[in-house]
Amino acid sequence: MAAPPFPPTSAGDAPEVVLIPPSRQYTLEELKQNDGTGPDGTILVGLNGKVYDVTAGKNFYGSGGPYAVFAGRDATIGLATFNMAKMKKETSGESVLSEKHQRNVRHWEKLFGEKYKLVGTLKKPPPPPPSTSEPKKAKPPAKTEEPKQSRTSSKVFEPAEEIMRKKKSKLCILL
C-alpha cells in the first residue's frame, strides 16, 4: 500500500497527529538557571508539576516585569495564593492548597497551556534525609510538691489523693 501524498490532498488523507508530552524533567536548580538572565535569555516557570517556556512573555516574566518573581521558579504557591513570602519559603508546589487556591492554579494552567510551550515536568525534590540528631529525651516527671502548711496552724494538709487512698472514698469537688 502506498503512503498518502504529502501534503495531504484532502482531510481524509491527513496523517493522525499524536501529541507527545515533553519527557524532560527539570530540577528546581535547573529551573533557577532559566530565569532570563542567562546568555540565551530563556525563561522557564514551573506550575503544578509542569514546566513552561515563557520566554515569549519576557515583558511579563523578564527582569522588571510584573511577574518577574516567578521566572526560574516553581510558581504554583505564588500564583495560587499571591503570597510571595509563602512562595519563597516553599521548595516546591507540594503544599496542600485550599479549593479556592486549586481553582486559581487550574486557571493559570489553562492560561499557560494556551499561551506558552510546555517543555517538561518538574522533578520532585528528594525527601529530606532522616534526622541525624538524637531523639529528644523525655522530660523527667514533674516534682511533686510537698504538702503545704497553713499559715494559721502548724498542721500539714495532705494532698487530696492521699486522703482518698486512706479513706477509700471518692472525692467530690464543688465549683
TrEMBL record:
Task: State where composition is biased (Basic and acidic residues).
Answer: 134-149
- This protein's GO CC annotations: endoplasmic reticulum; membrane
Where's the Cytochrome b5 heme-binding domain? Answer: 26-123
Q: Fetch the Pfam families from UniProt.
A: Cyt-b5 (PF00173)
Q: Which organism is it from?
A: Ridgeia piscesae
UniProt-listed InterPro entries = Cyt_B5-like_heme/steroid-bd, Cyt_B5-like_heme/steroid_sf, MAPR/NEUFC/NENF-like
> Hey, what's the signal peptide range on this chain?
none
Q: What protein is this chain from?
A: Cytochrome b5 heme-binding domain-containing protein
**Family, similarity comment:** Belongs to the cytochrome b5 family. MAPR subfamily.
Region feature (Disordered): 119-161
